[in-house]
Write a structure and sequence with these properties.
Immunoglobulin-like, about 180 residues, elongated, alpha+beta, eleven-stranded mixed sheet, about 15% helix, 11 strands
Amino acid sequence: MEPSALYSAAMMKKFAGLATVLVSVLALTGCGASGAGAPTRNIKQVTDGVEAQSGSVYIRDFLLVAQPDGSAAIVGTFINEESTTNSLTGITVGGINATLSSPLFDLPQNTPVIFSGDSANATGTIPGLNATPGDRVDVVVSFAKSPSVKLSALVRAKSDYFASVGGTPAPSPTATK
């Protein structure tokens, strides 16, 4: 059998078609552009809330929601991955101490402390912050066994997804006649 018989014209067409499809799939899915410089590896923040870490304590989706009375409500989750309990001891926003539902929140391993939302087990407000939605404000979060963390948190409007956040109800639009 001759070597050229192994590669018939029909077989070469099939191979070329398959190669084209394979290259197209790789190009369209981005699989050919993986690695340390891939655009999807460079995404850092996928929510409005900022994220940080202090030791084994992770802060997730931290932001503030402006309230009609000038205060702001805290939104965010704190999780300790260490086997020993840590504690959240305070939050200061723009130099103002937050009023928290507890003077200290124990953070046992993998038991989140959640501020605001359907699963909330904590609340916090910053009286008299008077921040405008869209502003970023400096936040310092303090822990018993980990170093303090400094954040730059976004202030969101009390509307849409955040309409029910905080103790002050969102103002309802006045009907006009």
